[in-house]
Structure formats: C-alpha cells, structure tokens
C-alpha cells in the first residue's frame, strides 16, 4: 500500500495489529447459508468496523466513503449467494460503499468486489483497499464472460 492509504485508515480508527472479533458476523451469515471463509475472516479481523469517510476526486473515479461492517449488508444474502453461484466464487459481505449505494464483498482469494445487480473487482488485497481509498475504478466482471474465462 502507498504511505497515504495507511494514514487514511489510521484516521478512521485502524491500528496495525488490531484484531476484531468476527464471531457475530460469522454466526449471523452462516445461519442463512453464507459461510465466512479464511480470507473474509482475516480481512474483517483487521479492518472490520472501520468507517472511512473520504470524498473528492480520485485517480479515475470519485473517492467514496465506505464502511466495513457486514451487518450493513444483512438482508442481501440472496444477492451474495446468487453472485457466488454465478461467478464460481464464495463471496462474503464486507459492508457498504458510498453510504449503501453499493455493497462490498470478498472472495476466498482476498479479491474485494463491488456487488450490486452487477459485480466489479477492486483487485486483491492489499491493493484492493488502496484502490478503494485512492479512487481507482473497479473492473467490471460480466458473469457470462467470467464463466467463459474459466472454461479456457
């Protein structure tokens, strides 16, 4: 990550080496069939609960605030299950982007995704978090295109 990204995270309450208890998120989502994989657990243990209040111009999109609290995505389990099935990945909710305009999720390979009626990738950690902070446009993933990529 760039030096700038940790500064933004620290201003949001993050400290290196912090550990957040993920038990509540795990049990809540597993009750509706969304299983917390290792990548989600590791990410949420370090960054869960953060609210990053940023704005203004970014690299190639606006810098938008985001909140890393899976409970904000509660009730969207169908959306995450359907995209998991469609993409052949296990998505776990992370929180919201732009005050709930979009949802954030993470797959088992630590790739952070924007989840809506479409899906886009911010890339894998740690670069994905930096992309969110710096205002880098996520790469849109078309589920039909993704399935054809897997067949190659």
Characterization of the model:
InterPro entries: SUKH-3. This is SUKH-3 domain containing protein. It comes from Streptomyces finlayi. With 152 residues, this protein is an alpha+beta fold. It is built from six helices and seven strands. The protein has helices spanning 4-11, 23-30, 38-47, 77-87, 127-134, 143-151; strands at 51-52, 66-67, 92-97, 102-106, 111-115, 119-124, 139-141. Strands 1-2-3-4-5-6-7 form a seven-stranded antiparallel beta sheet. A hairpin with a 4-residue loop joins strand 4 and strand 5 (111-115). It is globular, with a radius of gyration of 15 Å.
Layout of helices and strands, plus pairs?
Blueprint: H1 4-11, H2 23-30, H3 38-47, E1 51-52, E2 66-67, H4 77-87, E3 92-97, E4 102-106, E5 111-115, E6 119-124, H5 127-134, E7 139-141, H6 143-151
Antiparallel strand pairs: 1-2, 2-3, 3-4, 4-5, 5-6, 6-7
InterPro entries: SUKH-3 (IPR025850)
Organism: Streptomyces finlayi
Pfam families: SUKH-3 (PF14433)
Brief rundown of the structure:
This protein has 152 residues and is an alpha+beta fold. It contains 6 helices and 7 strands. Strands 1-2-3-4-5-6-7 form a 7-stranded antiparallel β-sheet.
């Amino acid at each position: 990550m760039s030096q700038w990204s940790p500064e933004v995270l620290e201003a949001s309450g993050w400290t290196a080496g912090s550990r957040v208890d993920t038990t509540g998120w795990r049990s809540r989502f597993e009750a509706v069939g969304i299983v917390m994989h290792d990548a989600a657990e590791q990410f949420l243990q370090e960054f869960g609960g953060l609210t990053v209040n940023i704005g203004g111009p970014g690299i190639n999109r606006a810098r938008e605030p985001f909140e890393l609290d899976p409970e904000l995505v509660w009730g969207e389990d169908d959306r995450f299950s359907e995209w998991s099935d469609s993409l052949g990945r296990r998505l776990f909710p992370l929180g919201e982007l732009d005050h709930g305009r979009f949802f954030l999720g993470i797959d088992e390979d630590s790739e952070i995704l924007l989840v809506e009626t479409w899906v886009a990738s911010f890339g894998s950690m740690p670069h994905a978090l930096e992309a969110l902070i710096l205002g880098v446009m996520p790469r849109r993933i078309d589920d039909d295109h993704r399935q054809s990529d897997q067949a190659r």
